[in-house]
Amino acid sequence: MAMSLPTPFRYTAPPPRKSATGATAEVYAQLASDFGMERPATFVVLSSAPELLTATWALMRESLIAGEGDRTGKELAALGVSLANRCPFCVDAHTMLLHATGDHSLAEAIARGETPSDEGHARVLAWGRASRNPGAPELTPYPFPAAHAPAYIGTALTFHFINRIASALLTESLLPGNAQRFRAVRSLGGRSLARTVRRRPAPGAGLTLLDAPGPGPDWARGTTVGPAYAALRDAATTGEGLLDEADRALVRETLQGWDGAHPSLAWECLPDRSRPGARLALLAALAPYRITDEDVAAWRKPDHSDHCLVHLVAYGAFAAVDRIERSLPVRTAKWRP
User: Fold this and answer.
1) Helices H, strands E: what count in the chain?
2) What is the SS3 assignment for 9?
3) What are the b/e assignments for 280-294, b being 16+ CB within 10 Å?
4) What is the per-residue pLDDT across 262-298, written as a single tens digit (0 to 9) for each?
5) Cβ atoms within 10 A of the Cβ of 113, count?
6) pTM for the whole thing?
7) SS3 content of the chain, % helix, strand, coil (to 5)
8) d(CA 9, CA 1)
9) Known catalytic residue: 90?
10) Could you say which of 87, 90, 269, 308 is catalytic?
11) Which residues contact 76 (CB under 8 A, 6 or more apart)?
12) Burial class (CB in 10 A: 0-12, 13-18, 19+), 168
């Protein structure tokens, strides 16, 4: 009798791959072609809400994969973000992707908790980690060329969002049995992705999945990163409709005063489970790794589908992304469309 592998999904049952149609099927095809993985769990978990799936993929593709700049550098930025957000799933994934770039010693140095020996690499990693904290000195000047800023900033914001989705809705295990914790497995996994990771596809394919997004923020003006960011902002913020005005106000006020710190265990402004929607949204924003079965059960009602849960978590996650984006010191370049 065959044994089934454990599922990485904590609270949802995403639609099976064979049922994917339209934009969802196209996302999976682009993931296979441009990312080297057809159905990574971080995207499959969003498939209950296709509008979130397409926008998240578009932003990652147009920044990390097709955007300007060195892939090793952008993986370091994503890894720094994931370390800052305490997302072991994403830390392990980007360590493996660093192996895919060919920087094996760099990947293993970071896996051991060491600072990269190359000063440029160390600065990019520190920039990614500091992006969670408004006003951190590591954020200026850029540790990358100004012309590459839209791709680096887009990458960082992508993973501030994905980290929160992963921590809230996935287990911590990237591979069954946490096999990625072994150096040989990390290296082998990276090598299997090397051909895809070491090429840079043309920008724009991610935008073909979107319905007329806006131009996006000024720091991404004239690039494909801007519309992708606008699409994710629009898709994620629709989740606010799952909360009443008092709960939305609490989320806004809490994020407005947030300094990037991880909340203490005695988090006084976190509502109890009598306000389950606000509680889930705030946890998704600031401490998604603390979401429990009881938190989800307190919110779930017969009319709260997986689509609703994914949207509520995405709303909280993007509330943090929005706070981070508005606080980042950016230089607005005069891009040529």
Assistant:
1) 14, 0
2) strand
3) bbbbbbbbbbbbeee
4) 999 999 999 999 999 999 999 999 999 999 999 999 9
5) 7
6) 0.94
7) 65, 0, 35
8) 23
9) yes
10) 90
11) 98, 116, 121, 124, 125, 128
12) buried
Instruction: Give the whole-angstrom CA distance, residue 229 versus residue 213.
Output: 9
Beta strands in 41-161 (DSSP E): none
Structure tokens that stand for 59 in this block: 């932003």
Q: What is the rounded CA–CA span in Å between residue 279 and residue 261? A: 18
Identify whether the C-beta of residue 170 lies closer than 8 Å to the C-beta of residue 291: no
As given in the structure block, the two tokens for residue 12 are 């949802």
Return phi, psi of residue 170, to 5°. Answer: -120, 160
For residue 139, give both structure tokens: 């954020």
Contact 221, 335 (CB under 8 A): yes
Distances (CA, A) of 39 to 86, 101, 152, 232, 309: 23, 20, 24, 20, 20
Q: Among residues 233, 225, 230, which one has the least CA distance to residue 148?
A: 225
- Secondary structure of residue 170 in the 3-state scheme: strand
- Sort 274 into a burial class: Cβ within 10 Å, 0-12 / 13-18 / 19+: exposed
Residue 63: C-alpha distances to residues 58, 69, 219 (Å): 8, 9, 13
Q: Could you report the per-residue pLDDT of 2-52, keeping only the tens digit for each?
A: 445 578 999 999 998 788 999 999 999 999 999 998 889 999 999 999 999
Distance CA(321)–CA(228), nearest Å, equals 14
CB-CB contact of 291 with 283 (8 Å): yes
